[in-house]
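Recap slide: S-adenosylmethionine: 2-demethylmenaquinone methyltransferase, sequence and predicted structure.
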Amino acid sequence: MIHIKQMPDRPSREAIEAIAKFSPATLHEAQGRKGALSSRLKPIDYRMKLCGPAFTVKCAPRDNIMLQLAINYAQPGDIVVVSAGEYEEAGSFGDVLANACLAKGIGGLVTDTGVRDTLQLRDLGFPVFSLSICIKGTVKETLGTVNDPITIGDELVFPGDIIVGDADGLVVVRRNEALAVAELAQAREDAEAGYIAAYKTGRSVVEVSNLEPVLKAKGLVVDL
């Protein structure tokens, strides 16, 4: 028997707001270079961003019945995250379902299959990250799971994990690590601001990054 599950543990608003301040790249680096989803998953428009709790769903390839159920039960701000077997030759989501998502206040879609109606999706401004763009239709036959752990983009995603996406890609942050990761991300941004300020004063990249002893140990000789 298949059960539709609600998200077991939602991240706090404080945690989501703290994580939303940072780019996926910064969060990936801050948490020890973890959590980056495959670079094959890209936004359909480079201006699209998303951040929110993962409402996970497992679909059969070329089948979107469970995606529609996920949209039905997701709550405002949720990011619907779909594992569908990395099947590129299907357009499982388009402008009709995007309007359903917008009407519910859903925060975005991440899927490892294809989407279509991308011109309309861009006009709607609904954030969509997908493996492909494909016009081929889907069926509604096979039941799957909602709000169980899934694998997508080579990463394990639990319901309630925080998904963050922008033009560069996607990262997942564990719900119970979010506030600590946000602190590490802020420290990283502060350090990078310091590097930029140093460059503007005329200091070199080698000096700012303290590369001289590293290069010397590796036997680098500069002949200029």
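The helical segments are 13-20, 24-30, 65-73, 95-104, 118-124, 178-200, 205-208, 212-217.
The mean pLDDT is 96.
(End of recap.)
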